[in-house]
Amino acid sequence: MSIEEYKRQFPSLLFDMIDARVLRITMSNPGKRNATSAAMHTDLTHVWRAVDMDKDVDVVLIEGEGDTFSAGGEFAMMEGIVNDLQERLRICKEAKDLVYNIMNCSKPVVSAVRGAAVGAGLVIAVMADVSVVSRTAKLIDGHTRLGLAAGDHAVIAWPLLMGMAKAKYFLLTCRPMTGETAERLGLMTMAVDDGEVHDTALELARELASGSATAIRWTKQTLNNWYKLAAPSFEASVAFEFMGFGLPDVQEGIAALKERRQPVFNGPRGD
Length: 271
Prior knowledge:
By secondary structure, this protein is of the alpha/beta class. It has a single domain, classed as 2-enoyl-CoA Hydratase, Chain A, domain 1. Helix content is 52%, strand content 15%. It contains 13 helices and ten strands. The strands form two sheets. It has a six-stranded mixed sheet, sandwiched between helices. Strands 4-6-8-9 form a four-stranded mixed sheet.
């Protein structure tokens, strides 16, 4: 598949062959710290199937343009999910498919993470097969601060990678963690200085591309069966997350995020 065809099918993303068989995908949303628009969310969901079928690609390197990986969903996308039931259902399906498509992509994925990694960007940063993160990067799953149950990828991945106690701590409180902390806890593969992120990730991508394609792909496939064991919990978490988009707390959560203040939740308690 040509670079031009990738650009045609997934116009919100940037593509180039950074090495002979290494495809680089760059998330780009200028002026918005690579925040995820509805269109980018869709492209990030489906691009992995195209990569999987591309006989000219052995490894994917994904990064954000400039000094930020991705600062989370655009307000317009979140408000669309709140106000439009059809959009809520569509993004709910994409939220599941994004995780499953990265898992089921036979080609190894390397993430190069600098700056903020939030929302769909955090999904890709963590679900990548090898993740290289800046020591000073800021990773946050902000669901409960928005009045939503932790959905996306967290329930399928975080307890396995860092243990249940730490997963509960960060997911219930929405405390941010640095890249250095994420490496120490096991959430990310490797933490390096900011200026070394790209080169280190590229070196690893080249190493994977030079290896036995079948051996590496089948190893990824079998290891990801550990994630698949948690699929029922993951599906429940996404269902609860998107149920929350229909409740009052999420409106307060979005307003507080816009106004850079602490939210004051007065919605139903579910008792």
